Each structure stands twice: as structure tokens, then as C-alpha cells.
Amino acid sequence: MKILVYPSPMEVIRNMAELFVDLAGKAISKKQTCSVLLSGGSSPKQLYELLEAGYCDKIDWSAVHFFFGDERYVPFDDPQNNGLMAKKTLFDPLHIADDHIFYIDTAKSPEEAARDYERRIKEFFGAEEVKFDIALLGLGDNSHTASLFPHTEVLNETKALVKEVFVSELNQYRITLTYPVLNAAHAVVFLVYGAGKAQAVYNIIHGERDIPEYPAQLIQPSDGELYWVLDKAAAAKLHGHQ
Ligand code: 6PG
Question: 146 CA to middle of ligand 1, Å?
């Protein structure tokens, strides 16, 4: 596990963009392709904007295939939709080809959307193991990641790659990749900044093992690298960063 701490959110985003370019470049050099799981929420928005604005010529974007670690069960045109946010900040400005973008189809029922997404992921990887090159994750202040929320059944799911989950605290369905798929990735990167996340970061890295309470503790890549890219505020409770 590599814990990278930077002075400010802007420094976090800049260094995260550099790390992304490095990881994507290595995958493309090795296999001429790169599969990325994007995270949603607000934290990665500035990263996607910076990748487009400052790094558009640093990656062969035509070799990158974009997937989502989770999706809110809202229509595609809803401002909460992670796919819409990525389309606006990354895909459209970089002219990413439609067949390189795998949105989660929330026009289907939650269960059908999960089954359909799993089918499309398996179709993409074909006979190969489902191993994303980069899994970008955020962390909620309640220690959830993707849509693996505290005390939800999906935390125990080890067979399905994708599941629908009703998150009662949000009164909302989510579609999420399950933890084994995330752990299979070649590189898992938590992008977390802000003082409001400090306790959650501590819970996951140093807290007692309590998966139902701290779901992001499930993220332990089987053979890939785990990165935490943090600002000082989010790292404030970590040993050696107080
Ligand atoms: C989502 C994300 C979710 C997010 C965390 C942190 O769909 O909301 O996938 O896991 O990463 O909730 O969100 P913020 O970056 O907005 O704090």
C-alpha cells in the first residue's frame, strides 16, 4: 500500500493526474489498451477536468476503455448521474469514442441494469480474467466506497461482479461493482481529500476490522497495488501525519 499525502486538494488532483497518466501509460505500453473504472461523486470531477485540460496529450486516449465502479439509480440526464458527470468533464471534451465508454444503463430496472452491466463487462474481457487496469475509488465520510455502503447485503457478495443495492440512508438504489472485482484490479487508487474524510480514512487504514461499519476495509487488492492519494486534511488522523 502506498500512502501519498499532498498539502492541498489542488496538489492532490495534480499528482493524481500524474499517477493516472503513469498507470495508464504502463498498461497501454504493455497491452496497447487500458481499462479504467471511474469513481463518481464530487472528488474526481476536478481530476477529470485536469486530465482533459492539462494531460490530454499525455495519454493515447483512443486506447482507454471507461467503466464505472458504481452508479446512482437516477436517469442519465439527472445531475447526480456519475456517467453524465464523466461525459461532460472527460468524454465529450476528449472526444472519447462511444464504444470505449460503458455506462451503467439506469433506464432498466435496478436488477436488470446490474445484470446487463455484468454481461457487458464479461463480454469486454472475453476469455480473460476481469482485471481492470485502474480502479479509481472515492471514500464517503461513512467509510463507504463505490456503492458498498455500511450494513448492506452487497458487502457479502462474492459471486456477482455487479449488484443492485437499495441504500436506505439515501432512499436510493445504486448499482455497484462488488469488492472482489475491485480487488482484482492491477491498481486501486483511493482519491480522498478534505477534513471531513479524516475519520473515515483512519477507520479504513488503522481502524479495528469491522467490514459492516467500514466497508472500504474490503478493498485489499489480490495482486495489484493499492494507493491512497490524500491531502493533509484527510490524512490528519493517520499515524505519522498528526
Ligand atoms: C458515488 C461514488 C462514491 C463516492 C463517495 C465520495 O457514486 O457517490 O462512487 O463512492 O466516491 O461517496 O463522494 P465525494 O467525492 O462526493 O465525497
Answer: 7
Q: What is the pLDDT of residues 190-223, one digit of tens each?
A: 999 999 999 999 999 999 999 999 999 999 999 9
Which of the four CATH numbers 3.30.360.10, 2.40.30.10, 3.10.410.10, 3.40.50.1360 does domain 2-231 have? 3.40.50.1360
Q: Which residues line ligand 1 (CB under 6 A)?
A: 39-43, 69-70, 72, 82, 138-140, 144-146
Query: What is the CA 162 to chain-centroid distance, rounded?
Result: 14
69-224-113 Cα angle (round to 5): 20
Distance 169 CA to ligand 1 centre (A): 14
- Ligand 1 centre and the CA of 141: distance in Å? 9
Whole-model pTM over 0.90: yes
